[in-house]
Amino acid sequence: MAALIRMGRRVVPFKCGPDFIDPSLHRMICGTDSSNLDLWMSGEKFCHRCFVRESSRGDISIIEGVMGAFDGGVSSSASLAKALAVPLVLVLDTASAAESVAAVAKGFEVYDPQIRPVAIILNRIASTRHRSLVEEACRAHCQAEIIGVLPRTEGFSLPSRHLGLHMGEESPLSPEAIDQLATTVTEHIDLERLLTLTPMSQPSTPPPPGRKKEARIRLAVARDAAFCFYYPANLELLEQAGAQLLFFSPLHDQHLPADIDGLYLGGGYPELYGKELSANHGLLQQIREQANNALPIYAECGGFMYLSQGIRDGQGQFHPMA
C-alpha cells in the first residue's frame, strides 16, 4: 500500500473478515479507514455495496485476505474474491520449500475453477539458486504470472501480543521503517504489471451512501487507545439510524458527554491501561450513577471488562473498575 501511494495512487484498503488490528495498520499507512468485508457476518449484498462505494474514493482497492485463500468456507478470501469478482494475487511463503511451491500454486489454480489467481509474489526467497528453482517450477506448471520476489530478511518484524499484532495507533512501525518497506516492495515487485493484471472495474456511479436521519438520540462512544475495536460500518449505521455519536476518552476525559441518551463501550485493551482507567474516579462514578439511573449501556469485549468490578493485569495487579 505504501509503495503504491508513493507512486501517486489513491489506495483504498479493505480487510477480509472480522478484524480490528489489520485495518488499523491499513489506516496508519493510507490515512483512511479500512472497511471489513465479511460474507458470513454481513452478507454478499452488504459487502458488494460497501466495496463499490468505498472503492470510488480511490483508483486502486486492496483487500487483504485472511489465512490461506480457501480457509473458512463462505468466509474465506477466495469466496470474497468470487462474490466481488476481483482478481486474486497469491503471496507464497517459500522459506522451507523450492519446487514444491509450484505444486501449492497449481493447487490454488485448480481447487476452484471459478477462482483463478492472476499473479504470484514469492516471499522469503533465500538466494539466487533458491529463486531459480522456484521460478522455473512455477513457470513450467502454473498459469499465474510471477510478478515479484521478496528476499528473506530478519530485519523486519511487527510487535505482537495475545490478540495479535500491535494496533496501528501504537505506531508499531516508524516512518523510516515504512519507507524502507515501500522501497523493498518497489525494488522487488513489478507494481506496474500488478496494476495491469488487476484492472479496477466498477459502476461509473457508485451507490449513494445511506441517508443519515436527523439525529434523535445522543450516544456517547468510548474511543481511545484502551477502547479502539470498532467497525466503521457499524458507527455509520448508527448515524444513519439517527444517532449523534459523541466520542470521549475513558483514559483522559473526566466526564461523559452532556445530555446523552445511551453509552457504547467497545472493545480494545483495557487490561493494558488498568492503572489509568482505574484512576479516573470521576468518570467511573458517573458511569455507575448513570447505570443506576437506567441509562442504556451497550458494552462488548473490553468495554464489558470495564463495567466489571475490576481487571487483573498481566503483572497480577488488580484495578477496580465501574
From TrEMBL:
Keywords: ATP-binding, Glutamine amidotransferase, Ligase, Magnesium, Nucleotide-binding
Pfam short name (any one): CbiA
A GO term, aspect molecular function: ATP binding
Xref: InterPro entries: CbiA/CobB_synth, Class_I_gatase-like, CobQ/CobB/MinD/ParA_Nub-bd_dom, GATase_3, P-loop_NTPase
Coiled coil spans: none
Cofactor field: Mg(2+)
PROSITE patterns in the cross-refs: GATASE_COBBQ
Domain of life: Eukaryota
Protein name in UniProt: Uncharacterized protein
